[in-house]
What we know:
By secondary structure, the protein is α+β, with helices and mostly antiparallel strands.
Amino acid sequence: MACVLVVPLGLFAVPIDTRSVFEAKQVSSSGGSTPVHQGLQMTIWDGVYTEEQAKRGREIYLRACGVCHGGDLRGADGPALVGSEFSNKWRDEPVARMFDTTRRTMPQDNPDSLGSQAYIDLISFLLKANGSPAGDAELPLDPEKLEQILITEKPFPG
């Protein structure tokens, strides 16, 4: 049996449930609630890509991104893609948003030109470069599945 603790925060009530930590509920004025980010059950810290996928992403990065973002991802003509710049931009966003934004805007001189698999491999490399661990399954191309993976700060050991 899971224990649920609901903490009121203004118009929101945040349930803390051992089965679904990331499901928040928005409380309406009538007292009802509707899920916010329903289904968010994973974070980038759950091993959401493979080492092989990140290796492919690194090759794509060096070929298509490194000139602007630097060989070490710390920025050159473009912003850094590691560290606080990365976490400040993408914190609490689903991986789907990062994938879509990257695909629509990069490379800056030829957006949406690398193909979907190349973009998802590139995202895997960026996750690895920011310390996220690899897992047994590749980061999927399915937008609904990518919506369920949240980019978060590294959790405290516990």
